[in-house]
Amino acid sequence: MIDEGHIVGNHTWHHYSVDELDVQSAKEEIAYLHNYIENEFNYTMSYFRFPKGEFSEQSLKIVQDMNYKSVFWSWAYSDWDPENQPEETKAFTDICEGTHNGEILLLHAVSKTNADILGKVIDDIIKQGYSFTTEI
Length: 136
Hints:
Elements: H1 23-41, E1 47-48, H2 57-65, E2 69-70, E3 75-76, H3 88-97, E4 105-106, H4 112-127
Parallel strand pairs: 1-2, 3-4
C-alpha cells in the first residue's frame, strides 16, 4: 500500500477504544504502531482514525499532541464481521447511492463482499463524476 502511494494511518496496535484508556496506555497504543510502521516500512504516519469512532476530548488531545491529524468517516458500512457479510448487490447500491462530495467511506478490509465489488464501486463513483484523492 505504501509503495503504491496510499496513505497509511494509525489505528492503534490492539484496536482498543482510546477514550477508555488512561493517558499513558493510549499513548503506548498509538506509539507502538507508529514505531513499528516507521521501523519496518520507513514510513511516518500522520493521520489517525479512532477505533470504532470512539473518542473524547482527552483522546483528541492525546492524538493531536502526538502530531496526528484525526480523520473521521462520513459513511460507515456494517461489513466488519467476516461471518455476516452484506449481499453484493445490496452493498453496491448502499455504497454508491449515498456518494457525496467530501465523503470518507469506512469499508473494512476483512469484507469479502467489499473485495468482490470494490472495482465496480470505484468505477461507479467515478462515473457519477467524483474522484478519489489523498488530500484531507
